[in-house]
Amino acid sequence: MNAHWNGNTGSPLSRREWLKQSAGGFAALALAGLLADEARAEGIDPRNPLVPRPPHFPARAKRVIFLFMHGGPSQVDTFDYKPILQRDHGKPLPFAKPRVVSSETGNLLASPFRFRQYGESGTHVSELFPHLAQHVDDLCVINGMHGSNSRHGGALLELHTGSDTFVRPSMGSWITYGLGTENQNLPGYITICPNLSHGGVNNWSSAFLPAVYQGTPLGSTGIASDQAKIPFIANTSTSRAMQRIGLDLVQEMNRDHLALAEADQALEGRIASYELAFRMQAAAPEVQDIAGESAETLRLYGLDQDPTRDFGRQCLMARRFSERGVRFVQVSHSYKWDQHGNLKKDIARNALEIDRPIAGLLRDLKARGLLDDTLVLWGGEFGRTPTSQGDDGRDHNPHGYTMWLAGGGSKAGIVHGRTDDYGYYAIDNKVHVHDLHATILHLLGLDHTKLTYRHAGRDFRLTDVHGEIVKELIA
Q1: What is the C-alpha separation between 268 and 429, in angstroms, rounded?
Q2: Stated pTM of the model
Q3: CA dist list (Å): 430 to 147, 273, 468
Q4: 335-349 pLDDT, tens digit each
């Protein structure tokens, strides 16, 4: 009889001990096979979890570009015109303020900016956005948004993950998990110049979803967008053939280890990320190289002027990644919209930086035939109060604010929902963040009640136990 040796002690194993250890190994292999079968049953290839997957039903949108305005843009200074607020400037608010507020505010503060009606839709837009106003008939303006949290951290997490209290997968992770991505040489989810505060990485984390679905950050706040590169993407010392040989050896060991583990999402994610990183070496530099873009396109996005150059490049990169099949791209105008004071000057600066680039993005997407199946989302974590802080500021307001959609099957040229006469509370056709998430998933062909993942003994989803599809937003 052949002896079986204990690798820890160097002594021979008895037949019983050998069978016991072998049985454990066979059980682990069986479990790994069951997990792989379960993934395949969900339409996910465990060897390539980013492969495109069919939606639950025919989709109107294939991809998302999220233009995130960190800090909370003031609705009453941008897209929610309130003539009675202008009339009653300086008077007390004639009804009760919320029970929970970020800080104390005073009397009503009129907008320092004029509004006009634009387009065939006659939508009111502030003078802050002369370029974007020319595209108002492509916009689906939601003036009845409301959320659950008046603090930046909680509100950011609610907008990005659906929960303001627990760590949950981000919207981009859920979408990539549900649909995969159309380009296997690039991440399915990219976030450009994200902020590292107010929830930080949890805003683009995959949480308990497999790690391959987390967002890939390019740079961060404080890094100019032309320096926001995927790090370590080039290897000038080793040929691709030699890299492939080395990677194959590492992956063989990783897969052997995974086969013996009961389940190891971190290792599964590492295996997939190594392969993706290898493929990205050829694909990513080309996407980020804008040398081939025409001078006309660069001007369109505002890359020819200092105020618009940085955010304009972010928007141009969003188009370049999206047209190459990246499923979810976020760009962040990072933490510039928190006007507790100096409202008139700061919000004018912010609008100057984003107006031309966003208008350019919409025009470019439309010209390339991409707007029809690209859903563009604009907004921040909440809005601002119509009452003043100091002489020239507004506090946080999650009770009524504005976001807008464009393209991707959203209904163009409409304003949905209404806040009260002063712009404090959403009162008609209210849209909660959960409802927005449900509607975005619907436009992508995903049933928000069926896009689930079992974790810790229960099925989770982006909308948790909430969310209603807002049919009026759908074309």
Answers
A1: 44
A2: 0.88
A3: 10, 41, 11
A4: 999 999 999 999 999
Q: What angle do CA 49, 315, 437 make, to 5 degrees?
A: 55
Residue type, 365: L
Phi and psi at 331, nearest 5°, equal -120, 145
pLDDT tens per residue, range 445-465? 999 999 999 999 999 999 999
In sequence order, the β-bridge partners of residue 458 are 455
